[in-house]
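Many introductory courses stop at the sequence. We go one step further.
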Amino acid sequence: MRRFASAAGVRSFSKIGGVPYAQAFARVLFGGDDPGPWTLLAFGVALFLLAATLPGCGSQASVAPPVERFQQYEPVGDAPLAPVPGGSDEPSLLPVAYEANGPVMLTAEELNIGLGPEPIEPAQSIVALEKETGRIAWRRQRDGDHAYSTPLVVEMDGVAQIVSVSGRGVASYDPDTGRELWWCRHHGHTVVPRPVFGHGMVYFCTGYEAPSLIAIDPTGEYDISESHVRWQAEKGVPFNASPLLIGTQLFLMGDRGVLTCYDAILGTLSWQHRLSGNFSSSPIEVDGLVLAVNDDGVASVIQPGDEFELIATNVIDAPVQASPAVSGKSLFLRTESHLYRIAATTDDGDAPLDWPQFRGPTGDGNAGRRDMQLRWSESRNVVWKTAIAGRGWSSPVIAGNQVWLTTALEESDGAVSLRAVCINRRTGETQHDIEILRKQSPEPMHPRNSHATPTPVIDGDRVYIHFGAHATACVSTDGRLLWRTRIPYHHYHGPAGSPIVCGNLVVINCDGYDGPYDRESDQRVNHADSLSDDRTTDE
């Protein structure tokens, strides 16, 4: 049975002062001048309670008052709360109809509702959606400056926890309830790198302003900022690329091309070496070697050890910001305009190992033993090269015979078509090209970013796709749109953090712009130009 929710009722009673319908009825009942505030309040509450008892207006079609005005998008009853068009902080109930407990399927018009110039309240949160429906299972708001990191599932003593880095802090969450288990403060913001885990420690970078690499013991409770930090380093810490852990060596690929190696247990600096070019993509490990691709498509293969040792240099002459992916004995590399499959042979032998999420099966960039060909060029060991229309920096994800990625196609009228694309792994042919949303007048973003930067995640026969505040969706591997929703937040420099799957949940960092503030004057400041290409050195 379908149930419908009215927008008018919620807007009328969502604020106690200035309730237009209550005022109008009160004038009729009481006559003359406007009723006093206490009369109006009592009348409004009584009318609201009466409406809740009428047929079709009971608890199943009503909503709870919003706790977070600009973040509230949780289906309570039959429809989600969302900001009123034009940026008002008054929540409205969208006129959405769907099966009770069924999937969310917001229309393109509803998804295009704007947030206004900036949120009135902090928009930072970590959100868990039900995999089957897209409904919010839990959401936890948090303080801090904007960030773009991807969460990581860490298992300690057989118990899973979700580690999530945001601006000014990192925290761990219970996957079942979203309860915050521990947190650790830091002094950076605009955090992009995904954390890694090993040797009983979580290693994370703190982003811009105060870039540091911090190793913490994730077994504590509550505030572990002082008690569980095992070591900290500042030299060579990247702004964008995620750390790579191979054995006891922790590698950092700096934005300016300096590769730094630390002892992961002791925190001591082992060596540094400058590679050519700038780097945005994250390094990965294949066959025990480090593979790092710079922004110009030059890929360096490095042997881990006590000192720097270069094994090979390979060139695909095209801009690259997406991190590479691996499946079987093949490397998949996305450039600005194409997707490459690189391998010595089309025969993978045994069934290929999947690469279902950003940075691979375990989310840390480790591919393990693949016996891959690690030498290539435009004319050597390229199995196929497929053009990808539009612009996007999401990494490819692979399951079976499918390679999925996202793209944003700019149209002549200024709109952007946000799309999910599936490429046949064997042939390079396009299997599916699905428009998730045609976004009217998308919000501005950093010139180095794209509207299709978050990497999808594949789980069984479903692909979960996130376009930041624009839309989040689930499609089947046979090309059907299963649900589509929206988590409003202001990501300031464009979308970036990728979704992950944890049990029956899809978990997303929604660390939007909610500052920063000048701590002395307590005033919001604009630092839109502080994250330009004039990056600080890594030395």
